[in-house]
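The instructor's notes for this session suggest beginning with a concrete chain rather than abstract definitions. Hand out the sequence below and ask the class to guess, before any prediction is shown, which regions might be ordered.
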Amino acid sequence: MWSRRKQWRNDLETLVKLVLCIAACCGLTCFVPDQATQSTKNDQMPAFLKQLADTRKTIADGYAQWTEAVKAGNIDALAAMYTNDATILPDGEDAVSGTGAIRTFYSHWLAQPGKLVDEKFENINSVQEGSLLIDSSRYRGVAIRNGKEVAFSGQRLVVWQRQLQGPWKILRDAWNKSSPE
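After discussion, reveal the predicted structure:
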C-alpha cells in the first residue's frame, strides 16, 4: 500500500513538473506566492525552472538597460549590449551587422528629432537552448516629437547569447512598429 502511494506521489510530481515546463515554454504566467512562501518553495523548484526565471529576469533587466541607454543617448552603452558579430534588423531599414556599424546606426538614430520618455517591454514568449535565448516581446512607449507626446508600440524579436563567463548580449535584434493607436 505504501509503495502505491509513493508511486502515485512520484507520478503526481512528474505531472506537475511537466505542466510547469510546458507553461514556461509557452510563456504562460503562473501565480507566484508571496516572498516568504516562495523562499521555502524555491528549494523544491526544478533547476531548469530556476534557470528560466533567472534568465527572464536578466533579459528584462537588459531591456531596462537598453531603454535607459536610449533615453540618455549613450551610444557606447547601447553598442556594448551587442556581440561583436551582432546583426540588427530595424523596422523599414537595411540590416546592420558588426559593432562599428551598430554604433553608427544608433548615432544616426539618436540624432533624429525626438526624445524617448519611456518604453516598456512585455514578454510574449522565450525559448532557451544552451547559451542562446530567443525572446519575443511587445514594446510600448512614449516619445516627444515636435513638442508633443507621441505613443508608439510594436514587436521585437531578440536572440540573446550568453558570453563565456560573462553577461548575456544581443546577437540578433529585429523590431517593427505597430500601426498608430
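Then share the key points. The two ends are 63 Å apart (CA to CA). Residues 163 and 169 are 7 Å apart (CA to CA).
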